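Case study B.
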Amino acid sequence: MPADRVFRIHARCPRTRARAGVLNLPRGPVETPVFMPVGTLGTVKALTAGELEALGAGLILANAYHLHVRPGSEVIERLGGLHRFMAWHRPILTDSGGYQVFSLRNRARVTEDGVTINDPCTGELAELSPEGVIEIEERLGSDIMMPLDQPVPYGTGAARTAEATARSDRWAARACVERERRGLTPPDRLLLGIQQGGFSEELRLDSARRVGELPFDGYAVGGLSFGEPPEVMRRLSRLSGDALPDDRPRYLMGVGLPLDIVRAVADGMDMFDCVLPTRLARHGVAFVADVPVQLRHSRWREENAPLDPACACEACALYPAAYLAHLVRAKEILGCRLLSLHNVHYYLRLMERIRSAIAAGTFGAFAEDIELRTAGAGDSSEPEEGVSGWSPRTVD
Amino acid sequence: MPADRVFRIHARCPRTRARAGVLNLPRGPVETPVFMPVGTLGTVKALTAGELEALGAGLILANAYHLHVRPGSEVIERLGGLHRFMAWHRPILTDSGGYQVFSLRNRARVTEDGVTINDPCTGELAELSPEGVIEIEERLGSDIMMPLDQPVPYGTGAARTAEATARSDRWAARACVERERRGLTPPDRLLLGIQQGGFSEELRLDSARRVGELPFDGYAVGGLSFGEPPEVMRRLSRLSGDALPDDRPRYLMGVGLPLDIVRAVADGMDMFDCVLPTRLARHGVAFVADVPVQLRHSRWREENAPLDPACACEACALYPAAYLAHLVRAKEILGCRLLSLHNVHYYLRLMERIRSAIAAGTFGAFAEDIELRTAGAGDSSEPEEGVSGWSPRTVD
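Model:
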């Protein structure tokens, strides 16, 4: 089945570049714009696969590199693949380890052939090549594979950025060859290309053109949300979206806060992943009316009402907000469990609201409304004061 | 309703002192022998009240002292009581804080009036008196209240043990007066007496006699599992059981491993609580065929079968054991969540097996079988080798 039969766009916003569609995958349809909860090590932190299914998640993200190191991609293959291992039966997208080439860059050595990472958890050397990553993703049973790439930190010089981008583009071509050789074809297996280009508009456009010419089933914008100012991220993601093929899904990797997602949808992005809903939960932060609030704040101490009276998640349906606040203060595991559930529920409902607004032709007004309401809660790149321990760019 | 209508014994073992019965409480019947999962701070660690209900827990334990300090017994009262706060609708037994008089003894000052504890979490002084504890337990909405007592560590001298025991007995009498004054009567509110006496047989018998003469609805054996050798615990618990009224429930506080519970049931004990199922889970230890096993052990690394193929809990029904082992090694929250669920399920099923055996007249053989099978797994006071971080007597 060609990719254009896998991805169908069924509505477009008349005022923005937003579009609503569906990815028809054998393990289940994925309605876009979609948010993927992050399950780096084969678990969306603190939640079960059954809970994610009940929350309506259609697609989750796991990390090929991390699972290759622990418990081992061969181990998972022998046990019947990642879906069976973690009891999640809907589609999985696997990130390649390109992010770890950045986040573990002090422990990584990059050559034209690939990258060697001295893993901080096991102390062992893991070798990743463009071909090897496809093999790992095949073993895991990934539904949507990402190729190995080499993003660069914000502030990297022009020459090094150009070199890493050209290498990422060459690696992308090698990944395409390898997936063909292995017969990993749609709709069972999608492979998305990743545009790089650092923080240079020219390199971003070059990379979009080169990657866009390769036979990928969709295209990701990589290397953003890597420490750059929010306006830089937005300018580059908009420019990148415009430069990538319109008829394939576009994935803005690692983004972000609710307003970041709404803005990127307006720029034509279809797929998102971010650790924030579960990481913020572990720091006592929950989303209420599209804004992150800190449960340690004294206003919640004796709050008899639910955290969000409009929310239908278990944490809001069963408990007074004061109970959640107590669990957070007492550092009880149930606290991060219930807040993780609430925050993932919130993100999935946000995407539903976005899709409905696009289908109804009202997305422009929806985006303006959320911009107005949440801009007052601070810059979109920083949750409200009191969000202690909030750190968007460390490893999940 | 007098207490003998609340507690009914319906079967007795012909070979041991074991008996099976039921505590008829307004919030639901509690079949005995019963194991109470420990929810010190209003949460059985890592589990929801809904999960405990689905597992068939009939009675859980919370700690009046800890909840009085955090979030405050007045706060919980204003929010409608502990049951509503934590969304648990079956009975709750509240421990008094007597255990903390022991475990926080370096921060506690005891007088005839009561005890002042410098709380290690808040840094504030909490004052507990026999009357004040009853008031706190009334505020929380406790179904089964425990009075303030003063247990002593193993190795305490005879004079100090006698003094603490006599004081505990006087405090017990004051608790009875206070519960009368407040009209906290069965079946809505039970109050159990606590026998003390340290590690002296004579003092244990004295205390059992004095506490046994007070109008309690049941009797607990306190101050055991406090660092003494297992044979000392068993001798004293057997002697104490014999000395306490036969027609009321008997509660062996803080015990224990499966074999400890089976032995104590044989000695006539009806109620148990212990942090082990959830604490061991947090250290990667699960009960399989009545024996604790360490999931970090290499034997689980590629185990495709469930942890316990005979177990119906979610952790065993949905996942290969290798997934649980991976979560434990990766220190994922879901790992301690699923092992906590499994271990609490195991303890509750153990009690069901015990009750069925008593009802069928086969408890003697049941106890012999479990003694034979698990004695090979090491002394009952110590789980098998490799149970890292196992420490039975620290605060939950």
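Residues 378-396 of chain B have pLDDT under 50 and may be disordered. The remaining cases will be described in the next quarterly update.
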